[in-house]
Amino acid sequence: MPNSAGKRFKPTKYIPVSTAATLLVGSTTLFFVFTCPWLTKVISPAVPLYNGLVFLFVLANFSMATFMDPGVYPRADEDEDKDDDFRAPLYKNVEIKGIQVRMKWCATCHFYRPPRCSHCSVCDNCVEDFDHHCPWVNNCIGRRNYRYFFLFLLSLSVHMLGVFSSGLIFVLHHRESLAALHTTVTLVVMCIAGLFFIPVLGLTGFHMVLVARGRTTNEQVTGKFRGGVNPFTRGCCGNVDYVLCSPLAPRYMLDPKKKPHVKIQPPFIRPDFSERQITIKISDNGIHSTIISSKSKTSLDGLDEKEMQPPLPPKAERYNQLKGQLTSSEGEEQSPPLFTIMTSYLLTLSCHQIIPVCP
Ligand SMILES: [Zn+2]
Ligand SMILES: [Zn+2]
């Protein structure tokens, strides 16, 4: 159910998927609560176990088809398609296995849709190997989640058949007490399973044919290869193998929850010195001894080990005296003390080198 950013929230689009999930989970729960205890006792514990395993498989595939990224292509940036947008033709042709396949320009996503890709009007995204938009799973069915959708249909047909036949056994053994709660609930569950079994089975059969022929629902409905050859088919067994066993296609959309991890590598380990970062060594006999001014680490590389030695800490008494001079000089702009004059002078002279003062 991945949504494109900035899309408006429509609560109505969740009605079919909520109905499907409620019917599936609700009716199966009723079956396990009201029908299965008797089946376990009289028939075999294998019956509820089998139904439980199939139900879990249905639920897992349903969840995957619903929540998985179907293969959404990210839209091109405005800068990326700036030149193409006005001059580009509407279609471009590519050759696949000697057959010309047309790629249409997507005005929304700003790129030529790759072969088999189509723009879903509900999700407002271009989806790789687009099959159709399924309201029952509230997601597009595309390259990445078609396998799970197909397995969901297959397992749902098997599950419905299992629930219906198990319910039938229960009802046939309780013909005398049809008004009893357990029998009534079983009959209701059987009705739900029976009602949906025909359309689900029909859809499953349709997709089995599509898988065998290597087509998508979109290609079949739009008659893309009518009278022509399908360049995407791999032969019946190859098509089944591709749908069920091929490695999962990569995601093209970044997960918005995952923030990009910024890792700082060397040479940033060594801090850069800015022009303002100046070390002033205050010696005992004078005011300044060494001024180091540097712009970057490269300028520091040329310094000798000796010159790189950190300055000795000033004696506390002298330091306080100088500190007092500095503080007072900030307020007296008209007559700066000797320290300030000397510092300014030396700053002007020294650039990327050490000037020894007062040796
Ligand atoms: Zn598109
Ligand atoms: Zn869609």
Automatic annotation (TrEMBL):
Enzyme Commission (EC) number: 2.3.1.225
Database matches in PROSITE patterns: DHHC (PS50216)
GO molecular function: protein-cysteine S-palmitoyltransferase activity
Reaction catalysis annotation: L-cysteinyl-[protein] + hexadecanoyl-CoA = S-hexadecanoyl-L-cysteinyl-[protein] + CoA
Gene Ontology, cellular component aspect: Golgi membrane; mitochondrial membrane
Coiled-coil annotated residue ranges, if any: none
Endpoints of the signal sequence: none
Superkingdom per UniProt: Eukaryota
Domain Palmitoyltransferase DHHC residues, every copy: 102-222
Keywords tagged on the record: Acyltransferase, Golgi apparatus, Lipoprotein, Membrane, Mitochondrion, Palmitate, Transferase, Transmembrane, Transmembrane helix
Keyword DNA damage in record: no
Subcellular localization, as worded in the UniProt entry: Golgi apparatus membrane; Mitochondrion membrane
Sequence segments annotated as region (Disordered): 298-317
Transmembrane feature ranges: 21-40, 46-67, 148-172, 184-206
InterPro entries in the cross-refs: Palmitoyltrfase_DHHC (IPR001594)
Lipid bilayer topology: Multi-pass membrane protein
Pfam families: DHHC (PF01529)
Swiss-Prot/TrEMBL domain comment: The DHHC domain is required for palmitoyltransferase activity.
Similarity annotation: Belongs to the DHHC palmitoyltransferase family. ERF2/ZDHHC9 subfamily.
Protein name as annotated: Palmitoyltransferase
Lineage: Eukaryota, Metazoa, Chordata, Craniata, Vertebrata
